[in-house]
Write a structure and sequence with these properties.
The chain has 737 residues and is α/β, with parallel strands linked by helices. The protein folds into 3 domains: 3-407, Na+/H+ antiporter like fold, CATH 1.20.1530; 428-475 and 483-570, HUPs (Rossmann fold), CATH 3.40.50; 574-627 and 634-727, Rossmann fold (3-Layer(aba) Sandwich). The chain is 63% helix and 8% strand. Helix 5 runs parallel beside helix 13, helix 5 packs across helix 14 and helix 26 (669-678) runs parallel beside helix 27 (700-708). GO terms for molecular function: antiporter activity.
């Protein structure tokens, strides 16, 4: 019997995955949400089709035996928690803060109007549709919530497809859906507490609301820091596979248990855990995609398939139930569209904009199904009423994408909005904006402290997690002294943190704290760097003393260190003619950036602009042309040079940094750069390609510049490349020059 039960369980999973994934793929190809395909797949496997055509076969596979049913229900219930975790991770509270008051107006009316309609409808439903007619208030709360929440996932899908994600209206729509979703799960939490008490009682209700408020306050203060710390600790400490995902699941489980202990549903804990996990600065796209893949591939088809199995569309052959279902669809659509439309108009939107908002908010999808499933499991909703709600969710969700596409298609983009969207699209190509974590390697030398200062400028505005590896006494591998970390070590750490906080304040960003971890190392070698690099870093920023030999080549120790890091490498060096004094970037200083049209040069420009932004330092962009008589206006080479400089100027506009551009001819690149430095540049930022070979080498131009200038030089190198790739990059640089 045990083997048979296990076999049936596997058969149920396989059928739900096969049918759900197959229909989801078909639906998505026709512009509909894949979730609806999975839900309808479950409906078809239930009594609506499979059970109608072959009742014995349907009952054999999807047995009503309590033990058998409990196995698949357990997977489905876990799926609910994981879906709410994923929904929380997709909830961008920063977007809500950016958009402003309009989304709150839309959310309030968009929830209140349909909620009131649903609650009122429950009071007039026939007794046969309620398991316990005495609990109409609780049933009304469930029905009102089901009618009032929008599906963020489905709304975002259509908004993204229409290229409205960065448009003003698109951000208002997404923010409104996020707020509605959050309000909805808070209502469900309170409703669950009421349902647990069996009736609406004032004192238990006040207690439940107070406990939920305390839970939310704890979660978004102390809880947020705990989650950040746990995710970073697991990422940095564990060597086993998927350790971070395990910790995230544990966080979700603990928070779900907390909400369960205070008498509200576990979904609230899972949802809040998702929000905190999604805001974690250490959560990489790679880790998030792994978790999303697990949920999307297994638990989502199983949960929505099981929800569909619980719906029996054959009951709609009853004319009364069919009419009630149509009335439910009409009330849900009119209430939701009308509430969001009114909110849009109150926020000052035009008729077309308010229509688009109302159309977007009318998508129910996954959230209504989850709410209805909870109500069904608590015996608050009957199977017939559950079927009606699922039918309403399917119809309104399938109708929403074409409605929203039509509404958004009627909205032209204004000039100011187009400029902002173009700037943000340009920012997506930025090197610094794509960094998730910074590894900083410094010593106590002036160059090391200056490098820590630069790291603070880069990481401060976004709160980028930064790990500082401080070398004792400025010694490289194999040369460590025997002195402990002294005052200079503390100064390096404090300097980086102080610089980062200053940037955060200057840019008026919402960074709670600088995520800086500092360690003192006895030595730095390929092994120690590689061990740290496994934790996931987008850039290694190194500033060390005595990294250049008397011959102008890089030391073997620096070569050893760089070989342990496969990603982009940034070296802060002092020019051979420098006096050792490091500059302080301000509005009166200038950063020189040579460009030549290559990707590494553009990265350097982006890096320099990020350094210049906090203190409005000027940036001079220099293009060195090798044409003998210069490029004639209108020539191919001249147009290319102008295009390269315009691209950097557009990027500077996005950063809000003033730039000067110049084209120099009749000089080698190193001489042209040295002449510009002599005019008063505080530092040089160069994009270089790390050449393969026995020695650490970035090209003749970089070597010559280091030998000729009297200021710090930042070499931003690409990832280590094969010889063919290096040759191609060199050729591109030569052609562009």
């Amino acid at each position: 019997m045990g083997g048979s039960a296990e076999g049936l369980f596997v058969a149920e999973i396989v059928l739900l995955l096969l049918v759900g994934r197959g229909l989801g793929e078909i639906f998505q190809r026709y512009g509909q949400p894949a979730i609806m395909g999975q839900l309808i797949g479950g409906i078809l496997l239930g009594p609506s089709l499979f059970g109608w055509i072959w009742p014995d076969g349907q009952h054999l596979i999807f047995s009503s035996d309590p033990a058998q049913k409990g196995m698949i229900d357990a997977v489905s219930q876990l799926g609910i928690l994981l879906l709410l975790l994923l929904t929380g991770m997709e909830t961008d509270l920063r977007l809500v803060r950016r958009v402003g008051a309009a989304c709150f107006s839309i959310s309030i009316t968009g929830v209140v109007v349909p909620f009131a309609c649903g609650f009122a409808l429950a009071q007039f439903l026939p007794d046969a549709l309620l398991p316990d007619p005495r609990q109409r208030v609780v049933a009304g709360l469930f029905l009102g919530t089901a009618l009032s929440i929008s599906s963020v996932k489905i709304v975002a899908m259509v908004v993204r497809e229409m290229n409205f994600m960065r448009r003003n209206l698109g951000q208002v729509i997404i923010s409104s859906a996020i707020i509605e979703d959050t309000i909805g799960w808070l209502i469900i939490a309170v409703t669950f507490g009421i349902a647990t008490n069996g009736s609406l009682q004032v004192l238990p209700l006040i207690t439940t609301v107070a406990e939920v408020a305390l839970f939310m306050a704890f979660s978004f203060t102390i809880g947020r820091r705990l989650v950040f710390t746990l995710i970073r600790w697991s990422n940095d400490s564990f060597r086993s596979e998927y350790a971070v995902i395990t910790v995230i699941l544990i966080i979700m489980g603990v928070m779900a248990l907390i909400t369960n202990l205070i008498g509200v549903h576990t979904v609230l804990g899972a949802f809040v855990a998702g929000i905190l996990v999604g805001e974690s600065p250490i959560l990489s796209d790679h880790i998030e995609s792994q978790l999303r893949g697990l949920i999307t591939a297994l638990f989502m088809p199983v949960f929505f398939g099981m929800a569909g199995l619980s719906a029996d569309l054959t009951v709609l052959t009853d004319p009364t139930l069919a009419l009630l279902t149509l009335a439910l669809v009409a009330i849900a659509s009119i209430g939701k569209f009308g509430g969001a439309f009114i909110g849009g108009r109150l926020a000052g939107m035009s008729l077309k904009e308010a229509t688009a908002v109302g159309s977007a908010m009318n998508a129910r999808g996954s959230t209504e199904v989850i709410v209805a499933s909870i109500g069904l499991s608590m015996n608050i909703l009957s199977h017939n009423l559950f079927t009606m709600i699922v039918t309403m969710a399917v119809i309104t969700t399938l109708a929403m994408p074409p409605m929203l596409r039509w509404a958004l298609g009627r909205l032209p983009v204004g000039h100011a909005e187009k400029q902002r969207v173009d700037r943000e699209l340009l920012d997506e190509r930025g090197f610094v904006s794509g960094l998730e974590r910074l590894l900083l390697l410094v010593d106590d030398s002036p160059v090391g402290k200056f490098t820590a200062y630069l790291a603070g400028l880069i990481s401060g505005g976004s709160g980028m997690p930064t790990t500082l590896l401080h070398l004792q006494d400025g010694e490289l591998a194999g040369q460590a002294g025997d002195k402990g970390p002294g005052r200079a070590s503390r100064e390096v750490k404090k300097g980086a943190a102080r610089s980062a906080r200053a940037v955060s304040k200057a840019e008026d960003t919402l960074v709670d704290k600088v995520h800086l971890t500092a360690r003192t190392e006895l030595e730095a070698s390929a092994e120690t760097i590689a061990a740290e690099a496994r934790k996931g870093y987008g850039l290694l920023l190194a500033g060390l003393e005595n990294t250049l030999t008397d011959k102008g080549t890089f030391s073997g120790a620096l070569k050893d260190i760089s070989s342990g890091f496969d990603g982009p490498l940034c070296l802060v060096l002092n020019g051979a003619r420098a006096n050792g004094k490091m500059p302080v970037l301000s509005a009166g200083t200038t950063i020189l950036v040579p460009v030549n049209g290559t990707q590494v040069a553009r990265r350097a420009a982006d890096f320099a602009l990020a350094l210049a932004r906090p203190h409005r330092t000027r940036v001079k962009v220099l293009y060195v042309s090798q044409a003998r008589q210069g490029s004639r206006p209108g020539s191919v080479s001249h147009r290319r040079e102008e295009a390269v400089l315009k691209d950097v100027a557009d990027l500077a506009d996005r950063y809000g940094v003033a730039v000067d551009t110049a084209i120099r001819t009749r000089a080698t690149a190193d001489r042209a750069i040295a002449r510009e430095v002599a005019k008063g540049a505080a530092m040089v930022v160069m994009g270089v390609t790390q050449r393969p070979g026995e020695e650490l080498f970035f090209g003749d131009t970089a070597t010559a510049v280091l030998a000729a200038v009297a200021c710090p030089v930042v070499l931003l190198a690409s990832e280590r490349v094969k010889r063919a790739d290096a040759n191609a990059e060199e050729a591109a640089a030569e052609v562009s020059a």
